[in-house]
Amino acid sequence: MNNLWWQTVGTGNCHLVLLHGWGLNAEVWHCVQEELASQFTLHLVDLPGFGRSHGFGAMALEEMAQQVLERAPQNAIWLGWSLGGLVASQIALTHPERVQALVTVASSPCFSAREDWPGIKPEVLTGFQQQLSDDFKRTVERFLALQTMGTDTARQDARTLKNIVLSLPMPNVEVLNGGLEILKTVDLRQPLATLSVPHLRIYGYLDGLVPRKVVPLLDALWPQSESRVIAKAAHAPFISHPGEFCAALVALSQRFD
Question: pLDDT tens digits for 37-55?
């Protein structure tokens, strides 16, 4: 039986849906949950097949977005981190009437490096897919270590992410491979150029997975969007810089008061 895990906390007038990244679950928001729940009605989701959302196999991006949308409030700010940023973006493209604003965090419309486009080398993602079959716990741990590299609190942040993964059953290899396939193949650069809802993009200056070189490229491609780079953050700015992260979201919500 398919069972999407969903938790709603807080009593703010503005709804905020939080979507996590590859290999993880909604516990990643633990360090900002209390602060955000004091300002928003917060919707915490485990993406299909991840965390406590059992009974799902590998999915295409469109399927994953549809599964999440079916449980969502009629109107909300949608925030997606990393892989979750692609899911939130897909929802904003197909159902803009349900999206008050889109926030993407340490996310790229095209994670895979292409000609004239900075990103993760496709062979690195293919390598992760192959290694998952051999030792997927170690492969996920390596991916988590990449997400915090370079920050002042790298070791502590990596431990936080690892504990979040280990606190719940690991996703199966099929689901993890499906997520990597999305990261490897999806390209939303052109579709998002015509996005009709407000779009805030938050980046970490030290991010090794979404290089900061994408920021000016997307500023030019999506002039209607707004970018914010957190100076000493890497791929998980809400863990390393929770105060700055929450302040940006509260400022965004105040536009809709």
Answer: 999 999 999 999 999 999 9
Q: Note if 38 is an active site residue.
A: no
82 catalytic, yes or no? yes
How many Cα atoms are found within 13 Å in the side-chain-facing hemisphere of 148? 19
**Cα-atom radius of gyration of the chain, to the nearest Å?**
17
Task: Kindly report the pTM of this predicted structure.
Answer: 0.95
Longest dimension (CA), the chain: 51
- Helix (H) or strand (E) holding 237, with range, is helix 237-240
**207 is an active site residue:** yes
Which of 207, 225, 240, 241 is catalytic? The answer is 207
What is the Cα–Cα distance from 76 to 216, expressed in whole angstroms? 27
How many whole angstroms separate alpha carbon 241 and alpha carbon 10?
A: 22
Residues 6+ apart with CB under 8 A from 54: 1, 2, 3
- In the set 82, 89, 225, 253, the catalytic residue is 82
Beta strand ranges found along 10-81 (DSSP E): 15-19, 41-45, 76-81
Q: What is the pLDDT of residues 176-231, one digit of tens each?
A: 999 999 999 999 999 999 999 999 999 999 999 999 999 999 999 999 999 999 99
Report, as ranges of residue numbers, the positions in the chain whose pLDDT lies below 70.
1
H or E stretch covering 99: strand 99-105
